[in-house]
Every structure is written in structure tokens, then in C-alpha cells.
Amino acid sequence: MLLSRGVNRRIGRAMHDYSMLTDGDRVLVAVSGGIDSFVLAWLLVEWRKKAPIHYDLAAVHVDMEADANGPGPMAQKLRRSISALGLPLHILPARWQPDLLPTETTKTYHDLCFQCARSRRTQMFVYARECGYHTIALGHHRDDIIETFLLNLTCAGNISTMVPKQNLFSGRLTLIRPLAYLDKVEIEEVGRQLRVTPIRSLCPLREQTKRRDMQHLASLIYQQIPGAKEHIFAALGNIRQQYLLNQSKERHLP
Ligand SMILES: Nc1ncnc2c1ncn2[C@@H]1O[C@H](COP(=O)(O)OP(=O)(O)OP(=O)(O)O)[C@@H](O)[C@H]1O
User: Fold this and answer.
1) Ligand 1 in contact with 165 (CB < 6 A)?
2) Best mutation site among 32, 87, 148, 192 for ligand 1 pocket (most ligand atoms within 8 Å of CB)
3) From the record, what ranges are coiled-coil (predicted)?
4) Confidence grade of residue 150 (pLDDT, cut at 50, 70, 90)
5) Upper half-sphere CA count for residue 73 (Cβ side, 13 Å)
6) Which of 8, 116, 176, 238 could form a disulfide with 20 if both were Cys (CB 3.0 to 4.6 A apart)?
7) Feature table: binding site for ATP
8) If you measure from the C-alpha of residue 139 to the centroid of ligand 1, how many angstroms do you get, rounded to a whole number?
9) Minimal CA–CA distance to 86: which of 65, 128, 56?
10) If you take atom 8 of ligand 1, which residue's CA is the nearest one?
């Protein structure tokens, strides 16, 4: 399958702008069962065929359905589709599962969503370290980056977002997001051409998170203001420090 010229160029530009991959890297691509991370896994396989560098590649999945009998049905299905790409899939039974939740009324959906994602990430970080992988590739895209910015702006009182490349633990682990310059719809189009069927999410909180609210907010802004998406994304790399405030956060947050 051929990627459109624009899509191919923006993947290349993201990889290049952030020097995401170098020769000899050992890369784990994190696959959720969703379209974005499957397309990313496919892309990293294809990219390696034509890249002037070589990197080792394997996939990892944190299985929310795993039980004493082993991987759940979704993870097994995912293993089949990932192995069709020629990649091994490491399945990690999730340590944190929604039905293991304490019945705490103080926790909001957002807290729980955050905890679940953090636990998943920690499991992948530990696995990467134990198995000698220094890079984890995630399927976040431009819409995710803008929604995170809106979330941090409106709910956390800071101006920040998820970055296309992030060094952690003094550089011992790097997160990369090669789809950072693509829109969700573009990735879905690639997924359609690859005939990817998303494996349904088990997340019971999915429809009720602040992230979902940010998706609605973003789509309202885009409907009202043509070009807003491009401008917001550009703004994230165009900080005018001298036109920001120097008050302390504590003084103004409730
Ligand atoms: N259970 C999981 N196991 C491994 N990686 C995961 C898992 N869930 C999410 N990820 C990684 O984190 C990224 C962002 O997760 P998020 O939940 O926002 O994505 P998604 O919409 O569920 O799935 P996708 O982005 O693959 O379509 C995914 O693209 C994937 O790289």
C-alpha cells in the first residue's frame, strides 16, 4: 500500500524534526487494539524496509482482559493481526483493571482514567527496561496533542502538551510519537486501506472522561473558526514568553 504524498511527508518530517530513530535502536511499539497504534506498527515495519538505518522492532500490549488462564480474547486476536505484520507481540497482563477498583467515591472518572493510563505506561516502561528496549513508540496524533493542550489549559492551569519525543529516566528510555503531525482522520484512512478492524475497547470510562470533553470542545472550535486546528498546533511551537504572565500558579487557582 502506498501512503499519500502528504501523509508520507509529514511522517518523515516528524521523524526528522525530532530525530526519532537512529541506527541500532531497539523499539517497542505499544499497541492498544485501536486503529492508530496498529497503523503505527504497520508504518514502522514499512519504514524499516526503506530506511537507511536498522532498528529492532517488537510490539507490546497491556491486556486488560487477562486472567489466570492467560491472555484474553482481544489480546489473542491482536497477536494474530500483529504477527501478520511479521512482528512479535508481547502481552503483559494488566496490573490495574477497572473491576479491581476500590469503591472510592472521591475518585472522579478522570482520576481513574489517569491512574489506568499511568499504570499501563509503568508496566510498559518496566518491560522495556527488562528486555533492553530503549524506545517506545506510541500512536498519538495531532488531535491527541491538541486535546492534551486544551486539557492542561482548562483543567490543570498550565500550557503544555504531549511532545513528539520525550526522554525519560535520564535518557535511558525515549517515547516517540511518529504520527504526531497526522490527523486522526488521515490515520483512519490508512487503517481503512489496510482493512484494519479495531478491537473494541473494554474501557468502561471511555465516554465519560475529560479527554472526551476536550474532543467535543476542539470540534466546536474547528467548526466555528476555519484554520483553528492548524493555528493551535502552530502555536504550540511558537511561544511568546514575554507575553505570558509571571504570577505564581498558587495565587490564582482555587
Ligand atoms: N492496552 C494498551 N497496550 C499497549 N499500548 C497501549 C494500550 N492502550 C494504549 N496504548 C498506547 O497508547 C496510545 C494512546 O492510547 P489511547 O488509549 O489514547 O489510544 P486508543 O484510541 O485506545 O488506541 P489507538 O490510539 O491505538 O487507536 C496508543 O496509541 C498506544 O500506542
Assistant:
1) no
2) 32
3) none
4) very high
5) 4
6) 176
7) 30-32, 36, 62, 139, 144
8) 6
9) 56
10) 32
Q: Using a 6 Å cutoff on CB, does residue 37 contact ligand 1?
A: yes
Could you tell me which of 166, 162, 145, 163 has the C-alpha nearest to residue 214? 145
- pLDDT recorded at residue 249: 63
Q: Is 201 in the pocket of ligand 1 (CB under 6 A)?
A: yes
Structural domains of the chain sorted by starting position, each given as residue range(s) with its CATH number in brackets: 5-252 (3.40.50.620)
Asked whether the beta carbons of 147 and 153 are under 8 A apart, the reply is no
pLDDT in tens, 192-250: 999 988 886 666 566 567 888 999 999 999 999 999 999 999 999 999 999 999 876 66
- Look at residues 206, 229, 220 and name the one whose alpha carbon lies nearest to residue 146: 229
Encode pLDDT of 2-46 as tens digits.
788 999 999 999 999 999 999 999 999 999 999 999 999 999 999
| Cα 177 to Cα 188: distance, rounded to the nearest angstrom | 16
Lowest mean pLDDT among 87-101, 125-139, 176-190: 87-101
Average pLDDT over residues 178-200: 93
